[in-house]
Amino acid sequence: MNKKILLGVVVVAVVAGAILVTKGKKPEVPATVTAQKPALTVMIALPETQVWQVRVSASGGVLPWQEAIIGAEIGGLRLAEVLVNVGDSVKKGQVLARFADELSQATLNQQQAAADEAKARFAEATVHLQRAQSIKDSGAMSAQELLQLSTAADTARAQVQSAEARLAAEKLRLNYTRVVASDDGLISARTATVGAVMQAGAEMFRLIRQGKLEWRAELSDAALQQVRLGQKVKVLLAQGDALVASVVRISPVIDPQTRNGTVYVALPSSPALRAGTFLQGEFELGTSNALTLPQSAVVMRDGFAYVYRAGKDNRVMQLKVTTGRHQQDRVEILSGVMADMSVVTSGAGFLNDGDVVRLADRHAAVQPELHMAVRPELVEGCFDKLSTNGCLLPRSI
Q1: Of 51, 105, 143, 261, which alpha carbon lies 20 to 30 A from 348's?
Q2: Is the pLDDT of residue 370 over 50?
Q3: What pLDDT does residue 361 have?
Q4: Domain residues of the chain, as ranges?
Q5: Quick check: 263 and 58 in contact, CB under 8 A?
Q6: CA 115 remoteness from chain centre
Q7: Fold of the CATH domain 101-176
Q8: 56-65+212-287: what fold?
């Protein structure tokens, strides 16, 4: 009986020791996961051929359609008043500035008096001539005296005409003391200063005629051949808005240095436009077929564009492509892909060349494939409760 009791104690001790040893050990974790496990669930599609607008981008400056220089038409007078400033809108004939006109007014009065005097002398000579002609048949007036009176009347008439011409010149000079706008438009520059004595012909103002601006776009020789008068152009403003404009002139000359020509585009009136700004725009040159893919299918790496072709055994192959036009969420593929190739359209940014993928239902939501992290430092402390503590991780880990 004592032997049985002793044997039972030994068994209990051995079992207890085994339990303690087992409790202190951690379960072994597999070192690797099958290499062929899909890296991601993706969707694929064939490239689509669509009819797209052919657009050519261009850049250029915004300049006035025509700019008028308004200057002093008389010299030697003091500028008494300036009535407009830069940015003011003016009408044709509107007074922009005034010169001091006291001297011109006095000269005009003097010429008016001289004209009146000449008219009086002419009237007197005319009366004498008429009286002499009325009595010439009586023999009281000799032919010599009659000739002298006729000459005096002609001289007086010429003096009247000369005086009236000088009077008209002084009136014109007086009018020139008022500087007026040559056309409707917008004042773009002002050099006139009150108190300055201006010389004849000196610039005082610059005027953007009728307030019109134009965009002068630079295009290559090849693109220039496709542009037509009246063609619509989309001009992009700095604020992100766009204006629809039209081509009004095409330069007949190509710059021999840049090999570019200038297209003149009439811009609609807009408070967002300023002369001197530099804008981008697009010319629509017709339509053409484009082989396109969704933007999500194209991955940019190291400055190059790539797509992933789905091949045999759902293994993807990385292909370098050349892209072209962009429209909404699609991009044109110029080279690198054929129309019959199946291309990954979702999750391409997470793939590498040679990865195995799972093809998703086209109508199902695409979620990254999850698997159990196997590195001990990631699973330590959560191995016994993988389903509840977030230890399910993407394969990329």
Answers
A1: 51
A2: no
A3: 59
A4: 40-51+289-394, 56-65+212-287, 67-99+182-211, 101-176
A5: yes
A6: 61
A7: Helix Hairpins (1.10.287)
A8: Elongation Factor Tu (Ef-tu); domain 3 (2.40.30)
Supply the pLDDT for residue 35.
Answer: 52
pTM of the model: 0.58
> Which residue type does 133 have?
Q
Q: What percent of the chain has pLDDT over 70?
A: 81
Q: Is 60 exceeded by the pLDDT of residue 385?
A: no
Q: Answer with the residue of higher pLDDT: 22 or 318.
A: 318
CATH level 3 topology of 40-51+289-394 = 2.40.420
